[in-house]
Specification:
A hairpin with a 3-residue loop joins strand 9 and strand 10. This protein has two domains: 108 residues, Nucleic acid-binding proteins (OB fold (Dihydrolipoamide Acetyltransferase, E2P)); 194 residues, Lipocalin (Beta Barrel). Helix content is 7%, strand content 34%. The chain is built from four helices and 18 strands. Strands 7-9-10-11-12-13-16-17-18 form a nine-stranded mixed barrel. A five-stranded mixed barrel has the order 2-3-4-6-5. The two termini are 32 Å apart. By secondary structure, the chain is mainly beta. The protein is globular and about 70 Å long.
Length: 331
Amino acid sequence: MKAICVLAAGLAAANPASAHHSASQFDPASPVTIQGTVARVEWTNPHVYIHIDTKGASGAAERWMIETDATPILTRSGWTRDSVKVGATVTVRANPDRNRSRNHALLVSLSTGTGPVLVPRAPAARTAVRATSLAGVWNSLRGFGQRRFGTLTPTPKGLAAMKAFNEAASPIAECVPHVAPQLPTLPYLTEIDVRGDSVIMRSEFFNVDRTVHMDGRPHPRDGMRTRQGHSIGRWEKNVLVVDTVLFADHRVGNSFGSAFAAGLPAGSQKHVVERYRLSEDGTRMLIDFLVEDPEYLAEPLTASAEWDYVPQQRLQRFGCEPEQARRFTFQ
């Protein structure tokens, strides 16, 4: 009989980190196994959803909504649009929503019984090819799980805003993209185009392009504030230093290294310095961040991340479907 079984926590796989959800929404300590029939598949961005019909403990019919990653991440993890078909019998392991009144869970693995077990984030393949410059395509999937953030010390104003934050206020719920330093740490591909007077950083996440001016210009006085801010750069030997100001007011969102930072605002004084350099073997990009925002941060915040060099891969850029983006905000 099709059923839902609660697994022992010690047997559970780690909760796949999400670029959109706070860690508090799902319960990795009480994973479930769902056996049932696929009723619907939504191959959409920023999340793919798989709907499964099964029977609950009482024998009554239930439908579960299983959530997973965006299509580019799934594709690089071995999925296709046809990997999971309507009518197929599947076994899903997932971390359930902490609100147990809704049948909603975050995917850990899926098996059809006839092929390989599918996971939302297969380990990124490492390459032996070495980069000779920062130019090229870089994958931050592996580095996403290894991000490091320093101590977050919000001002009283920042702390009050964080306490009042809820998921419905997340910028992602309105398909508004993240900004530095969060954007470069998301588990997607970034392409860097090094030109004489500029460096272009193209993210496949929500099709964000950043221009770093390298011609020696200063930041404009009283310049227009935009979502991604105004970036100028310089070379310190082989290190690219990117200095960004003039951010429009925004929320950090629901994920900034840890759920404890959910909802931290950023204002007109936000200043981000990023430093990009190659690893000694040329297979990785090493990135350090420094964030200052005296209005909301009592102390500067530091962070670090890594990208893997993946010259054989190409960006799978995608936009955002608002209806899908808002699904995770229901309370």
